[in-house]
Specification:
The structure holds two protein chains of two kinds. By secondary structure, chain A is α/β, with parallel strands linked by helices. Chain A has 18 helices and eleven strands. Chain A has three domains: 54 residues, Alpha-Beta Plaits, CATH 3.30.70; 189 residues, 3-Layer(aba) Sandwich (Rossmann fold), CATH 3.40.50; 105 residues, no CATH class. Helices cover 41% and strands 10% of the residues of chain A. In chain A, helix 8 links the parallel strand 8 and strand 9. Chain B has five helices and five strands. In chain B, helix 1 runs antiparallel to helix 2 and helix 2 packs antiparallel against helix 5. Chain B is globular and about 40 Å long. The chains are: A alpha/beta, B alpha+beta. At the A-B interface, helix 14 of A face helix 1 and helix 2 of B.
């Protein structure tokens, strides 16, 4: 059995969720609803961009990742630090300080993701040269970008660069080297990524472009960062030389870093999920001409802007630039890495039509007709009170069977007004002319019951429905 | 229920920044209906070119999109100046766009040729001084 392909790394802390509508408004794929006073994430719509984590004012959306204690699960562990880890520290001039500290923290070895990034850059340059006519290509390093394209931009899937992400290449090389060095079985070796973002957590469990990832666990930069500090005070002359990556590899942590390693002139580098959505729309409509490569990062500023980092993304980007200023361009070459068997994707990424309304064209067409009719009934304020981000989304939810028109506060209000009028009419009849007939009293009771049920069912949290309860 | 769906869009004249909104909306609807992605791409490009033309030459107009289970038909109707020479207008690179429009990167003379290239059928109905109606069809 395959693992859930719509796995996500955002979790809701229900106790913290106030049922406000901030997250539903910020979600770029409209994957969140608020029902019964709590947010719900719809797995198949979520692309793991982390925007809700950033914007929830109550910190009810939290990233999922592994605790550092996972290093005790293996006989031998290799840390894969993302280059964005280096950008967290002030005045860092020597990457070996960080890498040596990782060994002191308990890892048996380190392999820099930035070293693998230089191999990916080399392979990308070759691939683009050989497939020049099929340009522009879209970078495939950010899992959220692949997920977004997979559910929303089917015609752009073929433009994704079919090359493994740097961290996957790093994991493959690190495991092969550790096996060679220790003679241990592959499962006795733990390959642990120190990540700037939770999107890589889902990636490691349900990868894209390959069947199984070589990454065993993903820990957060924000967890590792403070633990390394006490180990970074060592005399620099005593450090074991471990670092082996240049300007191109470490530069990958910033927006524009990947294209920097491609040495092409006609490129576009966009960061931030809202900006990349716009770029993808225009790419889809063939409005962007003369491009060879399109670099897209879901986070503002690139990987340094990930939700598992500590430092401000723009300060971190500046620190990266300072750190690489005097580095050689690149220190890694594919020819020197025979343990890497295949740097290309083994599997195709398939379109997942999760936003399609029905199962067949005919059914979907009919459902779309109903969506249009419902949307016309709603006020078009996109107020979010129903728990869906827009009136149109509510209409879609209703047609899919996940909501009712009365979830709209305006529709409910007019229904209530309508019922009240009927009741009033009935009771007037009772007082002025003649006493109510038995069936009229029954009708009156039916209306009142209906009115109260509708009131009770309207988005009111469970705890507030019974007056006696605390 | 009949098996077709009709959407109408009013295109605002002289606002380049908004041109493309209608084709983008149609694109999203077609995705939700599950139309083949190549068909969506062709509809979106042809309709976008048409939208731009309406803005550049005709001060806007109305686009009606009909989705049936056999094809997608787009009818673009404007009350602009009309097209004096359709054969010339269909030539790649021929444009009557004003200089200020060209300076924005439009008016490359690819609009009508692209609309024809990306659709299965195209019909132009034009009366000088009265307006133009273009009907485009993409088969499913």
């Amino acid at each position: 059995m395959h693992t859930n392909k719509f796995m996500r790394s955002v979790r809701l802390r229900e106790s913290a969720c106030q049922g406000c509508i901030n997250c539903i408004k910020y979600c770029p794929t409209q994957a969140i609803r608020v029902h019964n006073g709590k947010a719900h994430i719809i797995d198949k719509f979520c692309i793991d961009c982390g925007r809700c984590i950033r914007y929830c004012p109550h910190h009810a959306k939290v990233p999922v990742y592994d605790p550092l204690s996972v290093i005790n699960n293996f006989k031998y562990t290799v840390a894969l630090p993302a280059p964005s880890l280096y950008a967290q520290y002030n005045n860092l001039t020597n990457v070996d300080i960080v890498l040596n500290a990782l060994l002191k923290l308990g890892f048996d070895d380190v392999y820099e993701v930035s070293a693998a990034a230089e191999l990916v850059s080399e392979a990308s340059r070759e691939y683009i040269r050989e497939h020049e006519k099929e340009a522009p290509f879209i970078s495939s390093a950010c899992p959220s970008v692949i997920r977004l394209i997979r559910v929303k931009f089917p015609s752009l899937i073929s433009r994704l660069l079919p090359i493994k992400a740097p961290v996957e290449v790093a994991a493959e090389i690190a495991r092969a080297r550790a096996m060679e060095k220790t003679g241990l079985a592959p499962e006795e070796i733990g390959i642990i990524f120190i990540s700037p973002c939770p999107s890589k957590v889902s990636y490691a469990k349900a990868p894209l472009g390959i069947e199984k990832s070589n990454i065993d666990n993903v820990v957060a930069i924000k967890d590792v960062y403070p633990l390394l500090l006490p180990h970074m005070k060592q005399d620099e002359s005593q450090l074991t030389p471990l670092s082996n990556s240049g300007r191109i590899g470490i530069g990958w942590s910033n927006a524009g870093g990947e294209v920097g390693g491609l040495l092409v002139d006609s490129y576009l580098a966009a960061d931030g999920i809202v900006n990349i959505l716009r770029v993808l729309e225009e790419l889809e409509d063939e409005k962007l001409h003369g491009l060879t490569f399109v670099e897209l990062s879901a986070c503002n500023g690139g990987c340094v802007g990930g939700t598992l980092t500590v430092e401000n993304a723009y300060i971190a980007a500046t620190k990266t630039k300072r750190l690489i200023k005097y580095q050689p361009v690149s220190k890694n070459h594919l020819a020197d890495n025979p343990e890497l068997q295949n740097i290309y994707w083994a599997d195709n990424v398939e379109y997942e039509p999760v936003f399609r309304l029905g199962n067949t064209f005919k059914e979907s067409l009919q459902m779309m007709g109903e969506v249009e009719k419902l949307t016309a009934r709603f006020p078009g304020l996109d107020c979010g009170s129903c728990g869906a981000p827009t009136c149109q989304t509510l209409a879609e939810d209703i047609v899919r069977g996940d909501a009712t028109p009365n979830d709209c506060i305006y529709v409910l209000r007019s229904n209530i007004a309508d019922l009240t009028q009927k009741i009033e009419h009935l009771s007037e009849k009772g007082s002025s002319e003649k006493p109510l007939k038995e069936e009229e009293t029954e009708l009156l009771h039916t209306y009142i019951r209906k009115l109260t049920t509708e009131l009770a069912s309207f988005g009111v949290p469970e705890s507030l429905r019974q007056p006696g309860k605390e | 229920m009949s098996d077709q769906l009709i959407f109408t869009y009013v295109i605002d004249g002289d606002d380049f920044t908004r041109a493309g909104e209608a084709s983008s909306s149609v694109k999203n609807k077609l995705k939700m209906i599950g139309v083949d992605s190549d068909v969506i791409r062709r509809v979106a490009i042809a309709m976008y070119e048409g939208e731009i033309n309406m803005v550049i030459h005709a001060n806007g107009g109305v686009i009606t999109v009909t989705i049936s289970d056999t094809d997608i038909t787009m009818v673009l109707a404007d009350s602009g100046p009309g097209i004096p020479d359709i054969d010339k207008a269909m030539q790649e690179g021929y444009s009557t766009a004003r200089e200020e429009v060209r300076s924005l990167g439009f008016g490359a003379g690819m609009g009508l040729p692209n609309m024809k290239r990306y659709t299965d059928e195209m019909h132009i109905d034009t009366v000088l001084g009265t307006g133009t109606t273009i009907t485009m069809k993409v088969n499913l």
